[in-house]
Amino acid sequence: MRCVNCPRVLRQWCANVMRSKVEPMKEVARMIRQHFDGIVAWTQTHKVRGYTRFTTMRTVLFLVAGKLDFSSFNLDAS
C-alpha cells in the first residue's frame, strides 16, 4: 500500500518539530530532513514492518528516537 500523503505529512511534522523547544526531537527532524528523499523512497517501495499508516510509523519513531529505558519493568529490554 503506497502512502500518497506521507511525504507531505512528514515534511509538515518536521516543520512543526523545528518550531518546538524540544531539542532531542529537533535532532530527529534534522536527521529526517537530511535523509528525506531516501526515507520517502524506501517507504514507497516497502511495507514498513506492516505500518501502513503514518500515525503508526510516527509512534514507532518516537519510541525509537526517544531512547526510553524500559528495563525497569521489562527485563528483556536491557
Summarize this structure briefly:
The protein is mainly α.
Distance between the termini: 34 Å
Rounded to the nearest angstrom, the radius of gyration is 14 Å
- In helices, the fraction of residues equals 55-70%
- Structural class by sheet pairing and helices: mainly alpha
Count of discrete structural domains: 1
Largest sheet: none
In one word, what is the shape?
globular
Q: Count of helices?
A: 4
The oligomeric state of the chains shown is single chain
Give the tally of β-strands.
0
Topology pattern, helix = H, strand = E:
HHHH
- As a percent range, the share of strand residues is under 5%
Mean pLDDT: 79
Which spans of ≥5 residues are poorly predicted at pLDDT below 50?
none
Descriptive account of the structure:
- The chain is an all-alpha fold.
- The chain has one domain (6-67).
- It is 60% helix and 0% strand.
- It has 4 helices and no strands.
- The protein has helices at 6-18, 23-34, 36-45, 54-65.
- It is globular.
- The mean pLDDT is 79.
Fold topology:
Layout: H1 6-18, H2 23-34, H3 36-45, H4 54-65
Helix pairs in contact: 1-2
Overview features:
4 helices, single chain, mainly alpha, 78 residues
